[in-house]
Amino acid sequence: MAPPCSLNRYLLLMAQEHLEFRLPEIKSLLSLFGGQFTNSQETYGKSPFWILSIPSEDIARNLMKRTVCAKSIFELWGHGKSPEELYSSLKNYPVEKMVPFLHSDSTYKIKIHTFNKTLTQEEKVKRIDALEFLPFEGKVNLKKPQHIFSVLEDYGLDPNCIPENPHNIYFGRWIADGQRELIESYSVKKRHFIGNTSMDAGLSFIMANHGKVKENDIVFDPFVGTGGLLVASAHFGAYVYGTDIDYNTVHGLGKASRKNQKWRGPDENIRANLRQYGLEKYYLDVLVSDASKPSWRKGTYFDAIITDPPYGIRESTRRTGSQKEIPKGIEKCPESHVPVSLSYHLSDMFFDLLNFAAESLELGGRLVYWLPVYTPEYTEEMVPWHPCLKLISNCEQKLSSHTSRRLITMEKVKKFENRDQYSHLLSDQFLPYQGHNSFREKYFSGITKRIAKEEKSGQE
Question: Which residue intervals define the domain tRNA (guanine(10)-N(2))-methyltransferase TRMT11 N-terminal in the entry (predicted)?
C-alpha cells in the first residue's frame, strides 16, 4: 500500500523526449528557486511520472514557468498501484489540506489522463464516480473551474504490450503547466535569421535552464552563430552578448540558408531575431572575434556561458593566425600582420573554452556546451576538465549510429589562478581528450562505411 502523502509531495508529468536532459533540467531549476533535489526523490527513469518533494507551491510554480521538459505539475493527494490502494491513500490524506479547494463556494472539474492507453468516455466517467467519497462540496464547472483535479494512470512504456490494469495510479490537484509552447512559438522555422547550425528552440531553452540563467544575468556565447542561444537566455530576462569569427554571420551578410532564397535580407541578423520576440532590450552586442584569442581584460564578467562550438561538419573550426604559426610566448603581432584562417583543433578549442570560462565566469556561474564524440570510442574520461570547474551533468544526444554529442554543464567552484591554466596537461585524461581532434574524419568515415554497406546489400 502506498504511504500517506505529505504536504510537499508533487507529481511531475514529463514530456517523452530528450529523456537524458530532463533530470538535469529539473535539478538545476529547483536549485535556482531554492529547492533541492535529493537522492531520495522518486524518479522512474523513462517514465513520465515523477514524484518530487518541493518545499512550497511557489517553488513548484516557478519551476513550471521555466521547464520545457515537464508538461504539468500536481499537488499529489494519493498514489497506488491499484484503485483500492489509491482510494486508501486518498483517505489518509489530511482533510484539512483538501478543504480549501473543495468548499461549497468553489468550482471544480476532474480530468482523466492515461499514458500508453486510451479509455472510453464511459470508462472515464466510471473512474470519476468512484471518487464520490472525497468531500467535494463545490459545483462542477467543466469550462472555467477554479480547481482542476486529475486522475493519472500509467500503463508502462511498451505500446506493443499494454497491460489490462495500470502500473500506477495518481490523484492530484493541478498546479501549473510547463513551457512546452515555447518550442513552437520560438521555432527556428519562424525565425528571421537562421543558419546551417541554428540551435533547435527546445534544446536552446534546455541549455539556458541547465545554465540556471535568470533575470539580469549576463550571458555570453563565444561561438554565437545566428544567436539562437542568446534568444533563449533573453527570454528568461538575461542580458546577452556574443562573438563569432565569421564576419558575414555576425553582420547578417552573404548567402541565405533558407531554401529558395539566394541572399540574406536587411532584417536577417541577431538583433532582428531578438526584436522579433520583443527581447531587443536584452541585446548587448555581438562582435567579430576569435574565441582562441579573447579580447577581454582579465576579470569575471559573465553569469553563464552557453555555447555550441563548431565540430567541423557543417561549420568549419577556424581561428586567426599567420602563414607561419606564431611562436609560443609572443603575444603581439607586428602591426602589418594580416590574420588568415587556420584550423582549430577541437581539443584546443575546448581547452580554450574551459580556461576562458574559469577566468571570466562569476563564482557559481555555469558553462554549458556541446561536446561531439565518436560513440564506439567514448569514455567519460574524454570529457574535458578544469580545476576551477565542477561537472554538473553530461547528457547524450545521438547524431548517428556512430556519433553523438554530449551536453556538458559545469559550474565554477574555485577562483581562477594562473597556475590553473595548464594543469590539465598533468592529468591522465589529456590523451583521450585529444582524441576529439579526429571527430570529423571518424564522422565521415562512418557515413562512407554505411553507404558502402547499403550499396552492397542492395546489389545482393
Answer: 9-180
